[in-house]
Structure formats: C-alpha cells, structure tokens
Amino acid sequence: DLLQWPQIRKCRSPEMETFSCFWTAGNLYNLTVPRILQLLYKKSNEEDWKECPDYITSGQNSCYFNASYTSVWTPYCVQLASKNEVYDKKCFSVDEIVLPDPPVHLNWTLLNTSQTGIHGDIQVRWDPPPTADVRKGWITLEYELQYKEVNETKWKELKPRLSTMVPLYSLKTARDYEIRIRSRQRTSEKFGEFSEILYVSFSQIGIGCDHCTEEVEFPWFLVVVFGVCGLAVTVISIMLSKQPRLKMLIFPPVPVPKIKGIDPDLLKKGKLDEVNSILACHDNYKTQLYIDDLWVEFIELDIEDPDEKNRASDTDRLLSEDHLKSHSSLGAKDDDSGRASCCEPDIPETDFSASDTCDATSDSDQFKKATEKEEDLLCLNGQDNDESLPSLANTDLQRQHRSTQSENSHLWAAFGDSVESPRPSVHTQISNQNSLASTDFYAQVSDITPAGRVVLSPGQKSKLGRAQCEGCTEQNFTMDNTYFSEADVKKCIAVTSHEENEPRVQEQGYNEDGYFTTESLTMTVANLGASTAAPPSSEMPVADYTSIHIVQSPQGLVLNATALPVPDKEFNVSCGYVSADQLNKIMP
Amino acid sequence: GLLLAALLVSHMLLTKEGVTSMPICPNGSVNCQLSLEELFERAVKLSHYIHYLSSEMFNEFDERYAQGRGFIAKAVNSCHTASLTTPEDKEQAQQIHHEDLLNLILGVLRSWNDPLIHLASEVQRIKEAPETILWKAVEIEEQNKRLLEGMEKIVGRVHSGEVENEIYTPWDGLPSLQLADEDSRLFAFYNLLHCLRRDSHKIDNYLKVLKCRLIHDNNC
C-alpha cells in the first residue's frame, strides 16, 4: 500500500453559520504509535494557532466550528498536524465553502391530465433545508430538480430556480417517476447533496391508464417522406429558378456535340463564305474515300486570280455537294478524324505516313499541272463542240446549260469559265441538285485514253450505274469536267456499243470536250430512264486518286486502276492519293 | 434593423438575471415615489448582480493569471474595508440596527467607488486581458454607482434623523496596481478582486437581511 498522509478532505458550511472540516487519517496511523491528529485553525487577524473546538459533532476525523467560532467573511486557515508535524493546510473564508443541506418534505400534486388520459401534469413542492435560514434572508438558495421514469437510467434536469415549487408537464400516467432535488447558494457553483427520492405514481391516485396505447414511436416514415418531398421541391425550384449560376452549379449543362472551330451559331447566321471556309478546313464529314478537300485545294491553288465569285460559286458547289454527299456534313463529326485542313495543306492526318500525304499533296499538285499542260490532249481536242463545258457534274445542269457553256476547253479554266457564265443558274442548279446528282466537280484523272480522252475516276462510292453509259463512246465522252475511271469507260464503251441505237447522243453531245464522271454517265443513264445495264460494281469504293502508273508520252498518263475493293479503313485516303506501294498492297 | 436585433439579443444575454430597467414612475410624473419595497427590490437585484459579476471576474482572473503563481497561499489578505466593523455572522447582523447597517452598506459602497474606477482602467493594461474581464470591470463600476444612488434613496427614506458620520475608508492600492513587476502587479489585482467578491457578497447579504426584516418582517 502506498503511504497516505493525513489530508484535509474538505471544509464545508451548510448554512453560513457554522462550518466543519473533514480529514483523512492516512495509514500512518497503523505503522507507529497511534498519532493524534490535531486540527489547528487561525483567523487571519490572529497570530496563534488554536485547536479545534469540537472533534465530535461532525463525526470522526472532523472538526466542527459552531456559530461562535464562525466569522463569515473572515479568512481562516486550518492545518492538520500532530505534535510537531504539519500534514496539511487549508485557507478559506466561510462564505466560499457554503454547501447547503438537501431540501426536505418533497411532495407532489396533480395539476391536470390530458384528454386522452395518457399524460398528466403535476406540481412538485418542497421545503428548504431546515438548517438554512432562508426566512431571514441570511442565505439565498436555488434548487435544481431532477426526474426520471422508474426504469430509466438518465435523469432529466430542470434549470435551477429560486422557488420551492415547480410544475412537471406531460408525464405519462402509465409510468412511475422518481424525483430528487438539490440546492446551492445562489451565487455559488457547487450543489449540496440530493434530497430523498420522491416517487410519483399516477395509479395511486386512481388515474392510472390501463388501456392506454403505447406512445407512437418517432415517425421515421413520415420524416423520410417529407424529407424527400422537400428535397424534390427544392430541386424543382432550383431547376425553374431564373438564377443561371445556381442552376449551372447544380445542373451543369450537358455539352452538345461540337466541331472544333465550328460555331453552330455561325452556321445558322454566319456568312456563307466563312462557313464554307471553315467547312472546307474540316474534312471530317468525309465518309467516303473520295475527298473533295484536296480538290478544293487544287482549285484554289490553280485559280490564279483570286476571284471571289469563283470561289463562292466553287464553295457553293462544294457545299451543295457536301450536303448531298454527306448528310451530316454540318453535323457532329469527330474532330479527330479530320485531315489537315486547307489551312495546312501539308499536314495530313491519315493512316499514311506524313510524308506520303505530303508527297501526295505535292504530287497531286504536280499532277494537276500535268493535266493542265495536257489539256489539249484531252478530249477537248477533237471536239468541235462549242458547247462543251464545264458545267457542274450534273446532267440536268448540263442540259440546261448546254447552250450557255462557254467554249473554254481547258479543264480547269473551263470550269472556271463555266462558273462565270452560268453562275446564277449554276447556283440554282446546285441548290436543286438532288441526291442523285452528287457528282463531283473535280475528279482525278485516272487514265488518258489514246485518243486523248481523260478518264476520270469516279467521285463517290454510291455512284449509280457507274458504268451505265449508254451510248457513250470514246468520242462521245461529253459532259462536264468529270472523270471516268478506265474501267468505267470500258463499261461505258461496252454499253455504248451495245446500244448504239439509243438516241441519246444529244444528251451527251453537248459536252464533247468536257469530261465526265461516271456519275454523270450514270446520270444520263438514269435520265434516260432506260438503263438496262446492270449496275456496275459501283458499290465498291473507288479511289478518287490513283498514282500515275505510266506516263506514256507527252500525251497521256495511265493511271492505276482505282477500283479497289478495300475496306474503308485501310484505304482511308485522306488525301485521296494512294501511293504505288500501298496500291500494291491493296491490290490482290 | 439587424444591428438593433443583435444589440438587443446581446444585451439580454449579458444582463442575464441582472438588472434590467424596471418601469419606474409612469411617464416621469413629478411626485412619483417608489415604495420602499420597490427600492429594496431593486437594491437587492443590483447587489446580487454586482456580486455575481465580481465572482465571475475573480474566477476568470484566477484561472487566467493566478494558476501556478501561488497566489492562493498568499490570499490571507486584508481588504481596505476591513477597518469597517461589519457584522460577521447572522447574529450580529440580526442585532445591528437597520439604520446602522444601512450606513455601513453605504460606507462600503462609497469606499469601493474609487477602487472600482481604477480597476476598470488598470485592468486594461494587463497583458492580453480577456475581453470578458474588461467589460465586467466596467460594468461593476457602473452598477456600483447605481446601487449607491439607490441606497442613498433608501437611507433617505428610512433614516429618521440626520446623517451622522459618513462612513468611508480610503483606498491606497493604486500604486500596487501599477507595479512594474508583473507578478506583484497581478497579485495586487488578485487581492483586489478577492476583496471585491467578498465585500459584494457582504452587501448582498446585508440587503437581503434588511429587506426580509423591514419589508417582509422576517418572513421571506
């Protein structure tokens, strides 16, 4: 056991008239001769220590100071000592150590009960501790009442109050309660001891409720329902609120599909020029192998006098074509699928290596120039048709503009001129083009016939009746500046030979000097409405551009066959140009 | 509007059970006189409030500055009002004449007027004094003045003769509150606050005894 010294436990005054001090003796007592502990006290204005006047009244190990020894506001010091040894010392004044006795005479009376008889109100009364002289105002007490149900463990507390009675409301009549009270001096912090417990039982006075229902438990269900409703109302109010910031914070807008660099508003109300230029930069809407963009580049590069009108018309045509070709040209296209825009002609994003595409681009430029140089060799030479011209790749257009076609036999220039003259009609024609007339204004020369005709590659996948060119002969390769593929031309020839009697030359005769695409051929076929030839394998994707296989002479170029049944992805000719190697790969 | 509401709430919280303005005379009539009972009621309320503030302030100061400095051991002090022979127990309080007791109360209150003023000003110079201590010092000083006025009114009513010796003890503790040494200075504050708590308790008690005696005839 640890050695415990004698200690003054506490000094207490119940009524500010007397006080007592209590100590613990410690276990020194047992070790040696029983020591006699003394409590000595001294008032502040005295010099000598006096001994405790009463060791008995307050019990063992205590000292009781009666009223004659008590001076309330006088500082005291007490010390616990024996013989010559002081074990403990305390200094205080009596007004600081007041701890009242507990109240007495607790009782309760019924105030009223609820209508259902489940709850009742009672009034609890008590008397102040008898020792405290409250009547003369010597001490002012305040009381704290605590109560609980009999089988509960936690007491409920009421606020301390001065009065000696307090009502308790809404007690359950079916249950029994316990009440206890304690008091303290009004400006102190410490409470005295608790009074005896008062038992409250409603059944004793005959109002016990035997048939009362149990109290309703906390309505969790209702709470949840109302919480959800409140939340819903809040959400709806937020949604309907005019505050955009709040709305955006809670309901962020779902991003709409966008093309990088394309402003949907611009498309709605922007200038067509801008839109066209933007669209031209984006070749995303290309779904086929045939890619116009390079031709756009070609056109732009080729036309040396920057005629905006021409451009406008060109872009209009392109635009219309694009619209016809691809439904979603203005729609959401994947930004990443695009190639280099026309703004960056040297930057391709194709499956091919950059060098290839660059080369392709440059090659196509060269090719263009080559074709220009050899325009005389093209089918324009032998043609006396003054009406040949580059109308747009629309049979209808050709028909209408037959007479208006200029006599420019240049492929490119013809196109440009034709653009000039019949521009308005061209425009209208463009706008009136139907899906069938999705011919291309520019097509790649795929072959040059010995006769000097240029064979153009078809522009589109879904060219109808590509080889349906009834009545088209080599020399009747009229039409606009479109191109046929060699294969198509052959088919065409075949067909032509097969049906020579078709009085259709007129249709095609207007443009002997021009070029025609397989599309236009098919157009004629379609127009005739008597196309009996089986649709060629026009479903196959045809490359718009092929490499120059042979340059036979200054008069001609032979291009590789472009009818390659390759899957799109493999033949994703963004530049529309297939290198020989790739072509070999693709070709069986 | 919001500021006013905040001020009202803070006032309510601060006054606690203390002193709110009670309606005195209706509409400032000239001959209005409060009954003695009313005067005592107010006096008791004020004295209780002052004691409550003193008690709190002492506790706060003790907690904040006195811990570990051994001030408690030195608290066998003597207050400057110790020279006034005030009743030290219930018997003495019951035996003393109420006029004398009233005079004593007045004397104590007057004796504290000066120290309270200096306390309010000097406590602000304590390093990092908490705001609660500061405003309590100011409040106590103000309420003490009001209680003094009230007590003079009561004495005027109760006293049947002329006022005899004006009881008063001077206070010379100001230099101790301005000591350079922080420990000594804080001990001076500690003692002063201790004395203040005690004397405010005395006055509160005396007034309650007088009230019960004079108003309720010893039957509170």
Q: What's the CATH architecture name of the domain at 104-205 in chain A?
A: Sandwich
Which structural class is indicated by helix and strand composition of chain A? Answer: alpha+beta
Number of domains of chain B: 1
Helix content of chain B: 55-70%
Radius of gyration of chain B: 19 Å
Element order, helices and strands of chain B? HHHHHHH
Question: Mean of the pLDDT scores of chain A?
Answer: 66
Oligomer: heterodimer
Please report the two chains with the greatest interface, counting residues with C-beta closer than 8 angstroms to the partner's C-beta. Answer: A-B, 24 and 31 residues
Helical segment count of chain B: 7
Highest-level CATH class of chain B: Mainly Alpha
Distance between the termini of chain A: 105 Å
Describe the biggest sheet of chain A? 4 strands, antiparallel
Largest sheet of chain B: none
Q: Based on helices, strands and strand pairing, what is the structural class of chain B?
A: mainly alpha
Q: Could you tell me how far the N terminus lies from the C terminus of chain B, measured between alpha carbons in angstroms?
A: 43 Å
CATH class of the domain at 104-205 in chain A: Mainly Beta
Shape of chain B: globular
Q: Evaluate the radius of gyration of chain A.
A: 56 Å
Poorly predicted runs of 5 or more residues of chain A: 299-303, 322-438, 460-489, 491-541, 563-576
Strand segment tally of chain B: 0
GO cellular component, one term (chain A): extracellular region
Protein name (chain A): Growth hormone receptor
Main location (chain A): membrane
Family (chain A): Belongs to the type I cytokine receptor family. Type 1 subfamily.
Structural overview:
The complex is a heterodimer of chains A (588) and B (220). Among the domains of chain A are: 7-97, Sandwich (Immunoglobulin-like); 104-205, Sandwich (Immunoglobulin-like), CATH 2.60.40.10. Helices cover 27% and strands 19% of the residues of chain A. Chain A is α+β, with helices and mostly antiparallel strands. Chain A has helices at residues 28-31, 220-240, 244-250, 264-269, 272-281, 293-302, 308-325, 354-373, 395-401, 411-420, 423-432, 486-498, 505-509, 518-528, 580-586; strands at residues 7-12, 19-24, 38-43, 50-51, 62-65, 75-82, 85-93, 104-113, 119-127, 141-149, 156-157, 165-172, 176-185, 198-201, 445-448, 454-456, 548-553, 556-559. Chain B is an all-alpha fold and 220 residues long. Chain B has a single domain (44-216), classed as Growth Hormone, Chain: A. Helices cover 64% and strands 0% of the residues of chain B. Chain B has seven helices and no strands. Chain B has helices spanning 2-15, 36-66, 90-95, 98-122, 131-158, 174-177, 182-214. The A-B interface holds A 16-17, 44-45, 67, 70-75, 77, 91, 93, 95, 133-138, 140, 186-187 and B 48, 51-52, 55, 72-73, 75-78, 86, 88-91, 93-94, 198, 201-202, 204-205, 208-213, 218-220.
